[in-house]
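Lab notebook, bench 4. We co-purified these components, and the gel suggests they stay together. Before we commit to crystallization screens, I want a quick structural picture of the whole thing.
Request: model the full complex, all chains together.
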Amino acid sequence: MTGYAIETKEMTRCFGALRAVDRVSLQVPTGSIFGFLGPNGAGKTTTLRLLLGLLELNGGSATVLGYDVSTQAASIREHTGVLLEHDGLYARLSIYDNLEFFGRVYHLDVRTRQARIQELLKHLGLWDRRDADVTKLSKGMKQKVAVARALLHRPSLVFLDEPSAGLDPVAAVALREDIQNLARKEGTTIFLTTHNLAEAEKICDCVGVIRKGQLLTQTSPAELRSQTGKATARIVGHGFSDSSLAALRALPQVESAVLRDDELHLELGPGTEIPPLVTWLVREGIQIEEVHKGRGSLEEAFVALMQENGQEHREVLS
Ligand SMILES: Nc1ncnc2c1ncn2[C@@H]1O[C@H](COP(=O)(O)OP(=O)(O)OP(=O)(O)O)[C@@H](O)[C@H]1O
Ligand SMILES: [Mg+2]
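Here is the predicted assembly.
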C-alpha cells in the first residue's frame, strides 16, 4: 500500500448529463485529517459515496486503504467508519444498545464490544446517559453517538459528512476536539466534509476544494490561505486625514482602507510588506501607536477561490 489512505485518478461520476464528480484526482495521506470543502452541490457527498463503493464510477479509478472501490467495496466498508448526512441510529434503542447492535454487526466479541463502547462513551461525555433512548437526545448528542458508532470497530479510516451540521458552536467545538483527539490517539485517517471553514482551518492537515465536480486545489489550509487569502492590517494612531486616506487608497498594494475611530483597517494585496506602509504613513504625518498584522482567513481564501473560478459570492454562501 502507498502512503495514501485514499487515492483517486480521474474519478468521474455522472447523473444523466451532469458530471457530479469530474476527473477528480485526490491523495489523502495515511493518518491525516483531510477536509473536503465546496459549495452546495459541488460533489462532496457523491465523492464520499463513490469512495465507499455505494455508487459506481463512470470513469477513472480509486483505491481506499489499498482496496479498489469498484471490486473490493465490502473490504472498504469493513475497514472504514462512516457518518453520513442521516445519523442512521435506531431511535427506539438506547445509546448503549445502538452501539451494542453495531458492535455485533462489526463482529466484535462481547468483551471487546463492552470495553470499546465504555471507552468511547466516557470519552464523549455520554457514559452517564447510556441508557437514554436516542429519540430523547439533542441533535449534538445524537451526532456524538453517530461518531462513536463510526469509530466503534477502530477503523483505520473514517468518513464524516458534515459532522458538525446543526450543532451549536460550543457542541461543534467539543465534537471537533473529540474527533481530533481520537484521530491522533488512534492514528485514524479522517476524511470529512464541512461548510465550516473555521473548523476546517483548525482541524485539517490538508484540504481539497471542489466546485461543480472539479477539484480546484488540494493543499494545506495555511498554503491555501497564503495563495488566495488577503492579508490585513490594523493600525492604531492619530492624525489620519481625508487626504492621507485617499492617497493611501490610491496605493496599488492597498485594496481597501477604512478608518474606525483611531483605527485604520487595511486589506492588502498578496505579499504586501507592512514596514514600508508604516514608513509611508509616518511621512504623511500620522502618529502610529500600534500595528497589528492579520492574515486572511481560510473563509476569505475560499471565497476568493470561488470568485476566481467565476462563481457568484451569493452562491458560495447559499
Ligand atoms: N442520486 C442522484 N441523482 C441525480 N443527481 C444527483 C444524485 N446525487 C447527487 N446528485 C447531483 O450531483 C451534484 C452533487 O451533489 P452532492 O450531493 O455530491 O453535493 P455536495 O457537495 O455534497 O453538496 P452539499 O454541500 O449541499 O451537501 C448535485 O448537483 C446533485 O443534485
Ligand atoms: Mg453533501
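Residues 312-318 have pLDDT under 50 and may be disordered. Worth comparing against the SEC data before the next meeting. The pocket of adenosine-5'-triphosphate (ligand 1) is lined by residues 15, 18, 20, 38, 40-46 (CB under 6 Å).
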